[in-house]
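Appendix B. One record, verbatim.
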Amino acid sequence: MKLFVNDLTVIDSSVVYADRGIVGESWIVDLMLIGDLNSESMVLDFGVVKKQIKALIDQLVDHCLIVPTKASSVTYVKDAHSTWVMGNRCHEATFFVKGPAQAFCFIDSDFIDEATLSTYLEGAILSQLPENVKNISLTLRREWIDEPYYHYSHGLKKHSGNCQRIAHGHRSRIKVFKNGKIDRELQEYWAKRWEDIYLVTEEDIVDAATLSVPALELQGERFIASSYESGQGMFEILLPLERVEVVNIDSTVEEIASYIARELAEQNQGQMIEVHAFEGVGKGAIAEELIGGGL
């Protein structure tokens, strides 16, 4: 017997890609369980599926930095005292991230894609299910988007949950309206501006010389460092300037929507700008801004 649940959850994480560095991703998760009927004439109760399996996915990969441990350009340490990851295949893909162990997901692979991540999750989850469940199949898929979008990574130090992790992210669409009409040109402009971006809150910028020793070899004028302490512990990140936008906000989606609206209104004075900023799949915030007079 096969039991399926489509759209079980969305994974919002950042991934280490050899040629792109740290990239925010969002994957929709579809689930299929294969097994025998239990004493309740079920493979598994849907309530258990939605609660237990979703919780396992959240624990294993959601809001983590997902790292391919066999990638030749990646160096990492994970032990009881320190967890950090560094990549330097090329300048644009160079990075250093340090944080608590639970902020990372290490997978024994040369690269990370939907199939690799699905296989990892299937193995980790199956052992936690009742014996009558013989197999599990997870399908990860990106949201189909027929308009401009961007990948962004960030951390929210004030957040009480896993959003405080300094390297997690999202693949997000962007809608921009000018005077009530969709403006594809402005959408494409912003999607290009934030292509594979990392958002650094201005007050979290630190001198790169204060970071942990492994990061010191990456220092230089073309890098920017950020660090903060939150409920889960101390976090550090170092990235190329070209991959960063420094913002004077906490990078919540509400503040992001307002930030984009203000930036675009400054460039289009006298025009009413409305921004729909998405945080991953199917959720986000709306902000309006008018600078320099009415219509």
